[in-house]
Amino acid sequence: MKTTRRSHQPAFTLIELLAVITIIVILASLVVSSMGFVTERQNKEKAKVQIALLSRGLEEYKLDMGIYPLTPATSNTDGTNNSGLLYEMLFYEGYDYVKQSSPATWTKTINGVTYAKSTKIYIKDLDPSSTRQGWVDLVSVPVLPTTVKDPWGNEYRYRTAVGYPPSATLPAAANAATMNPDFDLWSCGKDGYSDPSKGADYYDSATKKGNRDDIKNF
Questions:
Q1: Which of 10, 12, 99, 173 is a good FRET partner for 193, with 20 to 30 A between their CA atoms?
Q2: Under 8 Å CB-to-CB from 210, ≥6 apart: which residues?
Q3: What is the C-alpha to C-alpha distance for residues 193 and 218, in angstroms, rounded to an integer?
Q4: Is 95 helix (H, G, I), strand (E, B) or coil?
Q5: Residue 99 exposed, middle or buried by CB count within 10 Å (0-12, 13-18, 19+)
Q6: CA dist., res. 189 & res. 187, Å (int)
Q7: This prediction's pTM
Q8: In terms of DSSP bridges, do strands 107-110 and 113-116 run parallel, antiparallel, or are they unpaired?
């Protein structure tokens, strides 16, 4: 009578399987967290590049027009709702001029004061039909109003030291809190919060928001 030997194949025990799964979960979490860190770092670097591009465009605009794009004298001191000015004056006015055929006049009137419009596109990357920087909403034809957004989808903050229109009856200072003598330009960062009046180190532990992650030119 022949006896057959059973060959036992080595197998994982339940404890070994759990150990392997645990290691996989730990490695996966490390990969995800590192990817988040890399993405956040890329967003910060992109915001710095965009602020540099916008600042350069503002300086070129000033050289041609004699003034920076002015925020209203009644503008919010936190720089909100002003990024549309950047799009309008650094891109749209030049685009609008080029697409027209020799306009008879090229001026704009704000609160009864006449200002010259720009005839030059200062930042081509603001073109919403291509959105190379991804900082304006994609549309087939550039339109107003259009806001300029940072890599986190929040509107860039912008304010000038002098508001329009400078006159004897209206205050010349648009924002008493302006840090620079010409203009302030910044991103709220990932948390989407910014209140310059509370200082650069302000942080609210309850909401986990503050000014520490702001990226600015001041």
A1: 173
A2: 191, 193, 201, 202, 203, 204
A3: 17
A4: helix
A5: exposed
A6: 5
A7: 0.79
A8: antiparallel
CA dihedral 131, 135, 138, 143 (to 10 degrees): -100
Cα separation, 90 vs 56, whole angstroms: 10
Q: How far apart are the first and last CA of the chain?
A: 94
Do residues 126 and 136 lie in contact, with contact meaning Cβ atoms separated by under 8 Å?
yes
Residue 65 in this model has a pLDDT that exceeds 70? yes
How does pLDDT run across 31-61, given as a tens digit for each residue?
Answer: 776 666 678 999 999 999 999 999 999 999 9
**pLDDT score of 164:** 61
Task: Please choose, from the candidates 91, 88, 124, 125, the residue with its C-alpha nearest in 3D space to the C-alpha of residue 108.
Answer: 88
80 or 110: which carries more pLDDT confidence? 80
Q: Which segments of the chain are extended strands (E)?
A: 71-72, 107-110, 113-116, 157-160, 163-164, 183-187, 203-204, 209-210, 215-216
State both tokens at 211.
């000014």
Q: Residue 78: pLDDT above 80?
A: yes
How do residues 134-168 score in pLDDT, each as one tens digit?
Answer: 899 999 999 999 999 999 999 999 988 776 655 44
Greatest mean pLDDT range, 8-17, 23-32, 162-171: 23-32
Encoding tokens for residue 187?
């991103």
* Amino acid, single-letter form, for residue 1: M
Tell me the residue type at 6: R
Half-sphere exposure of 124 (CA within 13 A, CB side): 1
